[in-house]
Structures are given as C-alpha cells and as structure tokens.
Amino acid sequence: MIVKEEEMANLLESNGAVEKEINGVFEADEDTYDGVKVQINELMDSNHFVTMLRASISQWRKQGKRGVWIKLPIEHANLVNAAVKQGFWYHHAEPTYLMLVYWIPEIPHIIPANASHRIGIGALVMNDNGEVLVVQERNGAFKGTEVWKMPTGVVDEVNNDISNPLSYWFLINCNKIFTKSNSFKQQGEDICDAAVREVQEETGIKAEFLELLAFRQSHKSFFGKSDLFFVCMLKPLSYKIQKQDSEIKGAQWMHMEEYAAQPFVKKHEMFNKIAEICLAKKKNKYNGFSKELMTSAFSAKKSYLYFNQ
C-alpha cells in the first residue's frame, strides 16, 4: 500500500510527530566502523526528510564518516523513494522495516552483505523405550511420500513488534494482520529452544534439549541463501501426542530401528548417516555437543557455546 502525502500529513497532524533532529540533521548512533545508524521513529513528509538527509550527509562527510544506515519501519514507507533518489540502496528487509545504506567516501564501498544463512533444526526425541517421535507432513517435499521423519523447522530470528499503533495501522491496510502468538516471534531464538518449540508445535510433546548431534551446510537454498541444519537430541517430558492438524498428517512413537530401516532413509546418504548417528547414540556409542551459557570477549550478553564434554 502507498500512503499519499496528504494522508501522511493528516497522520502527522493527529500525532504531532516530528523526527528528532539536532541543528537540522538526524540524530545518529556511531558504529565501530566509522559509520552512523539512524532510526526513523516519527512520521515526516518526504520533502522535510530529504532536506534533513542532505544536511546530515554533509555533516557526516566533514566528520569523516563512511557508511550510513537508515532503518525505516513499515509506517515510513513513503520515504523509501526519496532516500533512493539521494543515493541509498536496499540492504535488507524484514516484515516491519527496511534497512537502507549509503556510502560517503568516493571509493568502492565495503558495507557487508546481508545475512547469508537460514538456520533449521531437526529434533530426535527418544523415550526410555528406545522409541523416537516421528511425523508425516501434509505439505512440502515430503507430502504424499508416507515417509516418517523427525520434527523439523526453522529458527525464528525476527522481532516483529506491533505494539506501535501506527505499525499496526499499516499492517492492517496492507492486509497483513499478524498476532504475537503465531507469526510474530521474539528476536534471537537459540537452536536448542527452536528444537523444543518445533516439537511442541508439531506434536504437542513437551521436551528438554540434551545434545547437538550433527549439522550440515548447504548452499543456494532458500531464496539463494545458504542453509545450516542442526540435528538435536531431546528428552520427552510428556508422551501424549496432540499433532498440529494444519501441518502434520500423522505423528507417533516408532522404534529407532524401524525409523532407520525405511527405504527412503536407506536410499539417501545423508538421511542414512543421521540415522546411523541416532542408532549409535541410542547404544551410548556416540557423544554430541551439550550447551553452556557464557559471555564473550566483546559483550556481557550471554550466548550458548555447544561443545563436547
């Protein structure tokens, strides 16, 4: 949806919104690479935006700055064309914002490319009887194959905040109504948490992460991006299956040996190797990687390190 300037003016009047500025330039945060980051928080018309943008770039050039990053939330879509005409280009987009970049020096830019990988998980959930939790999918590559497979999914990485009333207004008018309980996830989901979540979503089984068993990397996968897939071992905390009817055709507990003996698994090298690893783990002849929260040298924020103990 394109918002007309007169509609934007009405929104500006009703909200009393003026972008925070200092001496006619945008307030910006400096990054560690002599660049600046601008967050557009308030509505403005494109003419005022261009005036401030030109003044800001002039000042940043005098200060020796290099890269300029402008984050435009979806409610500021009216400013995209104006920014592009000033020399900005798209870096990446998420459901609720667009990131634009600009390079000030008259030399080839060194702005890094957008994130290059998608991260997926597969969950080996094994009970005390040596049975594994398996599903048959209604959609996707396994549709109609009758293959029993472990629950799989993608790690959620986007923080989509619709607490801003203007963001919500734009989403409604774009016919994209999301709720925080389904399409909107919290930023920075860990691999171990994603495995637990996917198992519960697909089968209703609550589980606890134990180990990371293996992972593989592939290229030119989802929209040309590379793909990382992690096989995780989980311990079930409940046993009654309540499958996700919209995505899952069937779900059951199956002996590990029966799962590994499926013709599809035997036929495909990687599936067969993962099954062999799972069988070895069942016999306590394979050790995976457990997790531990710790800080790094550059941040007090804790993250998981996966390692063999």
Instruction: Identify low-pLDDT runs.
Output: 1-20, 159-186
The share of residues in extended strands comes to 25-35%
Oligomer category = single chain
Straight-line distance between termini: 53 Å
Shape: elongated
What is the number of helices? Answer: 8
User: Measured on Cα atoms, how large is the radius of gyration?
Assistant: 25 Å
Describe the main β-sheet briefly.
Answer: 5 strands, mixed
Mean pLDDT, to the nearest integer, reads 84
Percentage of residues in helical conformation: 25-40%
Strand order of the largest sheet: 3-4-5-7-6
Structural class: alpha+beta
Key attributes of the depicted protein:
309 residues, five-stranded mixed sheet, alpha+beta
